[in-house]
Records
---
Amino acid sequence: MVTMRLALLVLLAASVFAQDRVKEELIKRGHSHQGEAFDSGPRQKPWVIEGIGSAHFPITTKNPEVQKWFDQGNALIHSFWFYEAERAFRWCLKLEPDNAMAWWGMSRAVQDPKRAKDMLKEAVKRKDKVSDRERMYIEASMLTDYEDPLDIRSRDQKNTQYIQALERIVMKYPDDLEAKSYLGLATLFRGPRVTPDLILKEVIAKAPMHPGAHHYRIHNWNYLDGEQALDSCALYGQIASGIGHAQHMPGHVYATVGMWQEAAISMDAATRVEKEYMRTRLILPWDDWNYSHNANYLSYIHTQLGMAERAISGAKQLLAVAHDPQGNVNDIYSNWGAGAIAMMRALIRFERWDDLLNDKTFEWKDSTQHKAFRAYTQTIAYLAKGDREKAEKAYADHKALKAEAEKVKGYAFDKNYAIQALELKGRLELAAGKPIEGLATLTEAAAKEDILLDQQNDPPFYPIYIANLLGNAYLQQKSPALAVQAFERTLGKVKGDGFALAGLVEAYSMLGEKAKAANAMGRLLYVWGDADAGLKPLHRARALVPDAKPIDTDSPARQRNYMRTSLEKLGPNVWQDFMAPTLDVTDAKGKQVTLDQFKGKNVLLIFYLGSECAHCIDQLKLVAKKKLDFAGLDTEVLAVSSATVDTNAASQKVGDLPFSLLSDKAFANARRFKSYDDFEDLELHSTILIDKQGRIHWSRTGGDPFTDVDFLLKEVARMNRGATASSASGAAQ
């Protein structure tokens, strides 16, 4: 009897274990079979990307196609396009899973330290299967700490050992240009800048169009002595014309040397290339690592050129982008963060006070950063409109955040807040008729901003140049000589700044120095030659020196004219949500369902893994609970899987779901909507928001279903508000 009972217990335990295993396997559906490291990153096969430059890196392989994709990945890494580089290296592994260098390439491309370590471990396991040269590359990477695999500013001991390992490759294989290129990158910011420059020039001497060598030279001379890299700036965007970052980086140098026309051409070209890439490849802006920084920089350059409408339009595009639930509403390099900085900068500089006071402009949140920015902008705007009482109230709100703000260290926010506090105090003191106190406070603020500009100037986080504010305050106090010093202080930090040049025209005119006023006016006309009509500082300056002609005495090289340079072929000027691919599925009754049937309504499109996927059903039930909320926002829910029509009909009866279960035969729709892993032939979870015009506004794809339904509802509401605003704008025009 005991034996029989024991046997029954064993059978019961085995049954429970088996059920648990089945449940575990079902939960893992949608996850990579190769482990957690492959759950992130691109999941679709690569394509041949035109305009990335050439950087051949021979590896041990039996398949010429593997070499082709490896070279593409290597060229992309040279331009820091890590996401697409990873896609190329993943396909190498699809073709040759045991290829050590493909694993090494993956370790270089992925930007998550844990994933990078996992990839490198696989390369190390196989390093005895490759050539001596390749093995040296793998062993060199073993000496990095992978806190950031390509951190060009890291100074720790391990990276010193990494540099020494690259030097050994160069000494043993002197014709290996890739080793020299990566050595040049690794030695940036580690001593005299001439050292990496000489290494990179040696690469360029043998391969004049090497993308990495030109790219790294630009980084080497960026911020200081940028004139040294103007030759590489002129070539890099041509060499890698299909890469946004390759168009973008020359703009950094052009901006720092005061070549604002060329800077605008570079940054505008970069945003167009990125928009075209996102549109054609169904990539959202918060999944394109450089887009927000690039668009913010372009908006900044537009302010420097006096182009208010373009600067504001660029900021609006960033603020209109869908939110990322992982936190893109606080990060300065997120779309919202970059958009908020760009919008504050443009509205303050161009004196758009009502827009600055409109909370709908920014959609402020409840974080310390948002509250501080809101109080800062309100104080300035109310003062400009003559409402000191409201300005004092906003200033008090800003002041009350001091303890909180000092704890926020990311992106120099604490330093920005300290400068804001002084700026606002100085403005209020001047408004209260206390010029000595106000000027002293602004002088202190300008000194702190000078330090911040030396630390971060790409573009500046701070929305204005306080030295210009100080110069204008001196003009108000009839102290033109001190005003000249203040404006020249700005020009010492920001070459060719139009606002400072306009101030100099006024200051020199007040001093009676006509020749100097004319010179400043000529320089201003060169920078602001295409500025918006009605720009107040330009209007005042013209009235003082009406007959001046544009002169360029500040640029270190000849410039093209931004407005006369055609960039349309590179991509669209304005970011818009892209059109959804074709949806052609079948409902539980065998009828065809397409997106065209839902024109005029939003669609929440969910790709799930069938009724046997427990966490998929959990997701659908969570959405079902909010059926009325979605309906109230004019939103239909469509749930698509590869299940057959008959299976869906049975599931519909049992599941009690208030929306149709749709059949996607052979994953045709999943592939079109990027909800299929080409590397492992694996269907994925996708949650996609499509607006009333049939455009994808937001999506999330991966190994797990997206279950933050409240976020989805908020984003649909934002989507509706954006559509209403666009309609109103179109009607007004």
---
Amino acid sequence: MISSLLFPYRRLILAFRAVSQGLRRLTAAREIGLRYLFESYAFDTDRRELHRGTDVIAIAPKVFDLLNYLIGNRERVVSKDDLIRAIWGGRVISDTALTTRLNAARKAIGDSGDEQRLIKTFPRRGFRFIGTVHETLGPAAATVTNRSPKPPFALLAKASLAVLPFTNLSSDPEQEYFVDGVTESLTTDLSRMVGIFVIGRNTAFSYKGKHVNLKQIGRELGVRYVLEGSVQRGGSRMRINVQVIDAETGNHLWAERFDKPIADLFDMQDEIGARLANQLGTELVTAEARRAARAPHPDSMDLYFQGMASVHRGSDPANLALARKFFEQALRLDPDNVEALVGTAFVDAMRGTSMLTGDRSARLMAAETSLTKVLASMPDHALAHCLLGVVQIFTKRAAQGIAECERALALDRNLATAYVWIGLGNCYLGRAKETESYIMEAFRLSPRDNRAFSWMATAGVAKSYLAADEAAAYWFKRSIETNRNVAAFVHFYLAAALAHLERIEEARASVEAGLALDPNFTLSHFHASAPTDNPTCLAQRARIAEGMRKAGLPEG
């Protein structure tokens, strides 16, 4: 009873805490002189100026304060009352007046109430700045720390990239629109990468047709990496060359060639952007991790990048354990590092899904707890939705899990792994025939993905459920050949398929390989680990269990 009476007061205290934290940040931004960088904008709290490139955008004082508060508190949704207390000192203002200021703030940064690309409205909850932001010291603070004045983008923080307009090498000048479309599509896709700041399209296009040294571009824009490319059309084929340059050293970091028959040009723009973004994302994370490893005092995001680099090296227990160590260190330095928290959830989810014995349920529960916390503050975090879907798929909530993965794809169309999990969820709902098409879509988006071996294993599982043993064996073997550190279950499933094909010696060898990785696994564990109550799927699993028994797996 007492607890229920105190609840409204607790909420009031929490609200005042949130506002006071926001006011402290607002005051600190004014005193220290911060510059917030997002898209092609620089928001200077010291000079109280909003820049777009080299242009200063006129902005009313209250609108400036409103933007400052939203950007400074971008990790959470701020309520209307929060804004009124912080910007107007608690003075009563009308909803119309607040809406007018919000619309002016959106207009100043090229956003709108319909698009909500940067400032998002959450009905009955409030507002949140959702753009990717990097903080740097403003000119006043730079003077205090004996730094020389620099142009607006020169203090851009850490992992940053400019995508230059691609060059049209085709003889047909009419292809220019397609070349520009590829550049824009790739810029959009890369801007979704966690922890990587991508210069806005309009700023990057100011270099179109100019021959400028890439090191110079890096200095002018304050970016660490520069991406350039060319497009050449010959007959019925299109060839695209892309390279990434370290703007500080001038060294080539990564290069790729994309060569395929021309189909629908607009579909090709999206596909090319997705494929290059997925591959480049891994390369940039690895490059940032190498830099972080050399840093004498790595910060929270440095440690996050090192954790992700460990994830990219493989999902075996050793790499995942190292990744979790980095994510935990990142959270100790910055408890509000949402990406590091998602990283710990990823490790727990992957360990939980690959285990058939041990603390599988505890791992999945820990992942769900972390993801619930993330989504409470960042409801549009695509990977968090996807991972929550994974947990639900493996805890007898496949329909919910599929819906979460579909939500993730609505937020990030290039999240290839979400298609694979949807495919697996369909298996657990007795619809294994639908799985392969989802996996093929993932391969189309990211054909060289570092988790491709697990996608192959998922295809094998679906084929096993359908009693297509030859195809199942093919996919499982491809998975093992791609990554020798696959989870034990891949060997056990392969053994079942081989046993049904009467290749008993091979089946027994596969069981032994699985037991070398998980010595305690038995048929009892296989039955107990069923992630579904669907009768069709359970009948299919019973046939797989019979194959495992035939291959020599202990009953338990």
